[in-house]
Give the backbone structure.
Amino acid sequence: MDSFNNSSRPSANGPSANIGFGSPSLANLSYDPETNTASDPAARTRKPVSANNKLVMGLIGCGGMGAANMRNLMEFDDVEFAAVCDVDTARMPDDIKKIEEVYGKKPEIFHDYRKMLERKDIDAIIVGSPDHWHALNLIHACEAGKDIYCEKPISHNFVEAQAMMAAQAHFKRIVQVGTWQRSTREFHDAIEYIRAGKLGKITHCRAWIADGARLGNQQPTTPPASLDYDTWCGPAEMKPYQQNRTHFNWRYMRNTGGGLTTDWGVHMIDIALLGMSKDQDLVMPTSVTTIGGKWAFTDDDRDAADSLESIMQFPDQNFVLTWSVLRDHPKKEGHGTDFISADGRTLRVWRGGWIILDAEGKELPKESATPQDSNHWRNFLDCVKSREKPRSDLHSVGQTTTVCHLSNMALYSGKTVKFDKSKMSVVGNNGKDTLCYQRQYRKGYSLKKY
Ligand SMILES: NC(=O)c1ccc[n+]([C@@H]2O[C@H](COP(=O)([O-])OP(=O)(O)OC[C@H]3O[C@@H](n4cnc5c(N)ncnc54)[C@H](O)[C@@H]3O)[C@@H](O)[C@H]2O)c1
């Protein structure tokens, strides 16, 4: 469901693209494709990462998005992929072939990512595994001194998000999260417009996704020979194998994902929070209520809600945020974020554009602050070298991910969840009894809190 559906986005922004926003609030570097160097002053004093100033990288999780990230990073001359790791050998051949084509040598192939992390020459890794593996992959990579391009949402549950943020801070690692919308022109423009106060006082934000994915019904079977299903389950409960619970579909299962709220909410709620914040340190709600359920696809094996409405209160800033998972929005994109002002204007942004509407729905003039898309993957590489904070720093997207977990906690506990940002803590016990707060790790797996 959550995929790059704009073909110009993930793969086309190679070194030939001019990448770099004018605004310092979302971007801190500008990259010169001619010389393959960043043009900020800090960049000029960068220390080489590897002997030849190439970043040596490894990929954990050769699925859809892991492979897409690897290909985007391979566009840059100062990266070399040396290793790939997956627990399903059937998923690796394309990535192995691609690495051979580009670098003229085979990558080292791993089944156990911890063995890959032992390689001293690897500077950075991609975490492209399903959400239930992110926390362990990332914390172990931090311990091994690697920098990380980590897919979103940062974690499967609330407690894991906290442990990941603590590990990153403890080991001072650079972590870019895969919320690439932060690097695209339309979202940057929209956020800058709101932050500049051009829409006036915002009283309401509304984010949504139309969800129509069908998983069907299946009976448990024997896993394919290529897949180490036990390790694929990792810290999550090991349920009987079904193909429609594993690759890609794990996101619709609460054992391994958080439904569309963590899958797409982390993108669209992120934009609302960024617009309403001064910088990457995001405003967070004090109170979250969610109503919904598995009401549309009752004959389907998914167990995450397919229909819901979350209402989040931000009393310090006097606005309300609603998050919807629903079938469709006639005359609207299937996903998007609206900012609604006290005087009745709406700024709407989605993957591909942004508009301002008056109270009657008539489009109003607007101006763009951004010359063109930036490049999320280049920003990661530059920050690894400069040690500056990337555009989707783990702590910031950890805040958005936490908001998504609060929404699910409210849904599955049936209680309003109160939250205190100063302590990054749920107030009282509301929602703590849900899987979205904390999971029971399987024997052999544990979550370290630094
Ligand atoms: N940023 C985006 O726009 C975007 C889009 C799609 C997916 N994603 C995110 O990317 C991540 C992967 O999603 P996907 O759709 O590619 O999933 P996927 O199921 O297609 O791929 C995940 C891969 O990880 C492998 N894997 C599982 N456990 C592993 C382990 N312990 N070690 C090594 N490999 C392991 C699986 O075998 C599989 O090949 C998710 O976090 C998802 O939310 C982000």
User: Anything to note?
Assistant: The longest strand covers residues 202-210. The chain has twelve helices and 18 strands. Residues 1-48 have pLDDT under 50 and may be disordered. Residues 31-182+375-394 form a domain with the Rossmann fold fold (CATH 3.40.50.720).
